[in-house]
Structure formats: structure tokens, C-alpha cells
Design a protein that fits this description.
119 residues, alpha+beta, Aspartate Aminotransferase, domain 1, 6-stranded antiparallel beta sheet, globular
Length: 119
């Protein structure tokens, strides 16, 4: 997947916004104001930082050595950097979903209800 495909996939999710809060080259996707995906648009090869469960992060880094690694400029315990054009698109979508879901799960129940995540 390229950055435009990743962008479209992220923006199709409920309550997602995009912005450039750091500079004009760092695209950030947030759900209800919390970051779940970050991409440095000038970084080559194209990559995206995604939040990840710490145990899963370690397993992914081992299985996809050199393609998924500790989050660049992020807390490496909770974030992975993923070379988006080098892994299968289905896996990248799963990782984006996982990152998004981690943020939604941490929201207070009232906020989840307000946004329609729970009934």
C-alpha cells in the first residue's frame, strides 16, 4: 500500500481526523483526538508508525525483521514503524485496525457511547 491508500483506509474509520501538528511533512491520524498512525511523508522508503500491543510488537518485529521495527521517534514499547510498501496490504490493514482499536478501547465508556462504538 502507498500513503494515499493508507490515508483513505484510515479516514474511512469512524471519528478519524488527519492533521499536520508537528510540521508540513508529518501526517497524523487521530481517533477522537488520540494519535493512532503517523507518517513522515518525506521518509524513504515510505513508512507509518502504528500503536501496537507490546507483546505483539515484539513478535511482529521478529517475524518481519527489517520491515517492522521499533517506532521511529516514538516509545518503542508501544509503537512500531512499518515499511508500508514492503508488507502484504492485508497485514498493513490489520495493523492499522489494531492501532485504531487500541485507542478506542482506552476511551472512557461515556466517550465510546458518545461516538457510537457501543450501544
Amino acid at each position: 500500500m502507498n500513503i494515499e491508500e493508507v490515508r483513505e483506509y484510515c479516514l474511512a474509520k469512524k471519528a478519524v481526523t488527519e492533521s499536520f501538528p508537528f510540521d508540513e511533512h508529518t501526517l497524523v491520524f487521530k481517533v477522537a483526538g488520540k494519535m493512532f498512525a503517523i507518517s513522515g511523508l518525506e521518509r524513504m522508503p515510505p513508512q507509518v508508525n502504528l500503536k501496537c500491543d507490546p507483546e505483539r510488537a515484539i513478535a511482529l518485529r521478529e517475524e518481519y525483521d527489517g520491515l517492522i521495527f521499533g517506532g521511529w521517534h516514538m516509545n518503542k514499547h508501544h509503537w512500531n514503524t512499518v515499511l508500508m510498501e514492503s508488507i502484504p496490504p492485508k497485514l498493513l490493514c490489520e495493523l492499522i485496525d489494531h492501532s485504531y482499536d487500541l485507542i478506542v478501547q482506552k476511551m472512557p465508556k461515556k466517550k465510546r457511547l458518545e461516538l457510537g462504538y457501543e450501544s
